[in-house]
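batch job 7 of whatever, protein = EARP complex and GARP complex interacting protein 1
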Amino acid sequence: MEDDAPVIYGLEFQARALTPQTAETDAIRFLVGTQSLKYDNQIHIIDFDDENNIINKNVLLHQVGEIWHISASPADKGVLATCYSKTSDSKVMTCAAVWRMPKELESGSHESPDDSSSNAQTLELLCHLDNTAHGNMAGVAWEPMGDGKRLISLADNHLLLWDLQESSSKAVLSNSVALEGKGQLKFTSGRWSPHHNCTQVATANDTAIRGWDIRTMTQIYCIENAHGQLVRDLDFNPNKQYYLASCGDDCKVKFWDTRNVSEPVKTLEEHSHWVWNVRYNHSHDQLVLTGSSDSRVILSNMVSISSEPFGHLVDDDELSDQEDHQEDKGKSAENLHQNETSARIPPPPRRE
């Protein structure tokens, strides 16, 4: 990381919504949604060429409002969903819709970073996720291993399961459940588990984390007071079916085994302000990335709770050195603990 020159991509407007295009297997591609009250908002399609260390991009217009959340279909690289705010009857509502990008952009033909976005194309609306009876949308998640026809949305205190029909031009609400009880009952985040035949979803509201079986829409576990303050984000370990990561406004990142939620398996306290996002690396689940409003992105190497707890990312020399010390169990445990490091990625320099 230290040997490569940093690659910086600038946006015309503010942005807080980013997602990888998981259906694209031949390129490293991200979608970024902007937030502007005065101008048409945009979705930037960003390709990173890791061989040449350059970025290529294209821009799509998202004219219906500020983008608060964005997610890409796992099956169709041309389809995405956004949660956006709009004003209706002097009230601000957060809605959700499914879109298709122009066909020519799906193949990865992009402009250079210096080209103007004045000729940006417009997204094609496929369908709305009607939240009229349920409240403001907080997020949308696709079925991880599916065909791109099922997704969930979070609307205030409702968890909604949708089926996309007629080439995704129609969204049918197939099931739902509502939070009941005292306290803050609005969902802040949700994550669909890639395990258990994609029958489980985890949600966060206030300081609690809940697991749901979407076949019956019943709660299967609850972690009360998972964080000292608001829970911001969740992510499932892609290789260990019961492991879940969470982060929140208490500046902490926690790892849970959902079979025993009495206490976290591990806790990280590397950030100094709210932790907004946590994500596992899909190929090497010991690598966990977190982003915070302390202006830092931290990559942590969580070897001891990964699917390969003895570490397959070390090189041959390091591996042989570790093997030389296997006789001393105490030293082995100490080495394992020392392997759990964090790399801080500093923010880009400010522009004058």
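notes: The helical segments are 316-324, 329-338.
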